[in-house]
Hints:
The structure holds two protein chains of two kinds. In chain A, 76% of the residues lie in helices and 0% in strands. By secondary structure, chain A is mainly α. Chain A has a domain at 87-299: MetI-like fold, CATH 1.10.3720.10. In chain A, helix 5 (87-122) packs antiparallel against helix 6 (127-141) and helix 10 (232-239) packs across helix 11 (244-274). By secondary structure, chain B is an alpha+beta fold. Chain B contains 19 helices and 21 strands. In chain B, the strands form five sheets. Chain B has a seven-stranded mixed sheet with strand order 8-9-10-1-11-19-12, with helices on both faces. In chain B, strands 14-18-13-17-15-16 form a six-stranded mixed sheet. At the A-B interface, helix 2, helix 3, helix 5, helix 7 and helix 9 of A face helix 1, helix 4, strand 10, helix 8 and helix 16 of B.
Amino acid sequence: xxxxxxxxxxxxxxxxxxxxxxxxxxxxxxxxxxxxxxxxxxxxxxxxxxxxxxxxxxxxxxxxxxxxxxxxxxxxxxxxxxxxxxxxxxxxxxxxxxxxxxxxxxxxxxxxxxxxxxxxxxxxxxxxxxxxxxxxxxxxxxxxxxxxxxxxxxxxxxxxxxxxxxxxxxxxxxxxxxxxxxxxxxxxxxxxxxxxxxxxxxxxxxxxxxxxxxxxxxxxxxxxxxxxxxxxxxxxxxxxxxxxxxxxxxxxxxxxxxxxxxxxxxxxxxxxxxxxxxxxxxxxxxxxxxxxxxxxxxxxxxxxxxxxxxxxxxxxxxxxxxxxxxxxxxxxxxx
Amino acid sequence: xxxxxxxxxxxxxxxxxxxxxxxxxxxxxxxxxxxxxxxxxxxxxxxxxxxxxxxxxxxxxxxxxxxxxxxxxxxxxxxxxxxxxxxxxxxxxxxxxxxxxxxxxxxxxxxxxxxxxxxxxxxxxxxxxxxxxxxxxxxxxxxxxxxxxxxxxxxxxxxxxxxxxxxxxxxxxxxxxxxxxxxxxxxxxxxxxxxxxxxxxxxxxxxxxxxxxxxxxxxxxxxxxxxxxxxxxxxxxxxxxxxxxxxxxxxxxxxxxxxxxxxxxxxxxxxxxxxxxxxxxxxxxxxxxxxxxxxxxxxxxxxxxxxxxxxxxxxxxxxxxxxxxxxxxxxxxxxxxxxxxxxxxxxxxxxxxxxxxxxxxxxxxxxxxxxxxxxxxxxxxxxxxxxxxxxxxxxxxxxxxxxxxxxxxxxxxxxxxxxxxxxxxxxxxxxxxxxxxxxxxxxxxxxxxxxxxxxxxxxxxxxxxxxxxxxxxxxxxxxxxxxxxxxxxxxxxxxxxxxxxxxxxxxxxxxxxxxxxxxxxxxxxxxxxxxxxxxxxxxxxxxxxxxxxxxxxxxxxxxxxxxxxxxxxxxxxxxxxxxxxxxx
Lengths: 335, 584
């Protein structure tokens, strides 16, 4: 197992180098120029040249890339063109917000998806099962920005029962950002009111972000449980008179979880980097909104390093998923 | 059954969360920790709406972005200035509500006229920076010296210093800055500059504490900490308590302020880039005010029971009309045009373009009725609008005249003039809320009088649009300007000034005597004569129809009912110090 993990970690190096080159080139193919973005209508050919020189954009591409790569080896991912802030510092500051939102979305998706998948599988063919299939189809196909805007309009603007945006009620709660996860920081500051308020702020974006994973997890769970229910060992377990709960937990769910865990891993990875729409709609100061703003401003350094960091996290989450297989199914051996 | 239990637990949890603290306003100060830096309990009693200003409370305001940097000299945009001018102050500033009247801020008074090379500033006594160090003549000298010697890497960000003081280093406009005594500073210029005081009234010229600048390594381009850390470098009515990029900036009242202390206990500015999302945040109650209301939302704001505060404009949308575009494009190797002969080379055709455009209709359709037709480049809020207008004959909307002019130039229904007309995408500006919509409307107006219009567009911040427009590659194009300070040199001068004997490529406006007229007007120090001379310049430019000034677009802010005392300024330079909350 240890060897496997080390090998996978070593594999990261070529993956990240390749990825960094791809992102580096793609960004430069995009329309938009950081110098013009910074200067706006005050741009003159001279000032643009000056800014480009200051940002190092006037040098040949290969030189720019090699310097970027050199920085990577020293774990220096550069500075934002626009704000001159350290990209890694900015990423680390925002990532907890995205992590918190992802966790909320996944709790919502898993908390509902697995039990509903199990439930519909056991009542295969019934109207409940069919309704579940339809609902999960809708869940998968609904555009996230539409869902987000509808949730916000209904719950925040029309009925005003949940906050419309942001991570905490800034008027009433101010506590030190230690982890930059509001729920955790509220608890650390000993503010139960702040904790509840932070949870309330998580509901709408969490539901918006968690709907697609919920639908996918529900469908995969259902399909997988249906397969397992047909296995001989389940029949045997039932036949020997084991209580239903033990059959479900020990025999059905555990064996059915393998594909579900894969999906959970992939979905978590996606959510961590793909919350751009949700974060923008709900004014959530996470990584997604950060990268979105960087794309709008042609802030190359933030885009390339930010995407690289997200890719790194995606790969690491998947590694964790692979490792967790071994625990779920001891027959799987890594060498 | 267990499944249902799960689902019901989750559902109940969500409902409980929704119910919990649904009305947090009912228990206002229970949970909020006392704002740092204020040792006395905040006076949070409130008065009835519209009564006497009362101190206390927290205001959450939505801007489009936070600041690019917390170092004033390294900023040049309105959103950065909004953050910085709560904390920092310049020596002199424009009086609230004006664009051309100066008042002392950190300088109590000054000596120096538009034709002087020497300015003596008498500083306010007893002013302290937020870090507790005193503000004095040495601090002023430190700031000016630092700006003049800014490291090259940071110069690119210091647009205003560069523009106002003509570059950096020993040979720019500043000859010397001397601390004559503790509270007197003498600034000597190399030559008189009538716009010097207006220039240094910009937020970019705010005074920062030398101790903070040094502690933060503000001049180290690789340190970059000035963008992230909370700055205690200002003297202003608010102290920055915390600053979380992309999330919020929190300010608390500066209780040791030299002037009237701010009324709010706390001010929080949240960045919300999308105007629709800002409106939703106001409707949802998470902010109590926001800037740059989209003109299409004016009704939603007033119908929702919110206040809409209009900000008179200090900007102008114009239509660039370039007779040389096709030659320029050919020389640049761009195949924009099949026909290299431009109908716009005829003055009558350029004038026909101007006569074809109904500016009032555009204001109604795209500016929510808030804006004024731009007869000259100078906005109505400018002190120079009147003198400059004296030299300009306005080409009013008149389709018949437009058709006659085209006929005069030899064009008619059988051989209509073809013009290529460009607009920028992926951008809105206060003067240009909907570039594509404006383009469609103006295209229609041009076609109505007999033009054939070939549309073109490019991305705003791509060298494509701004670059090509400024290189003079477009027959017709939209662009605009928000004034830096109130002087025609910042409007006509910046756009039409000659460089090494060559006219500005953007307009290809090369008229005999224009170069001399601009130089002459720029150098004139007597304000009446200066007005006359700029009127002459404007007369030449508008007379040649080198561009058509279209609209001064007003902008607006929205606030909830209880927010009082906000004073919009044409320049957008606005302090929250006098803002107060009138209670529920």
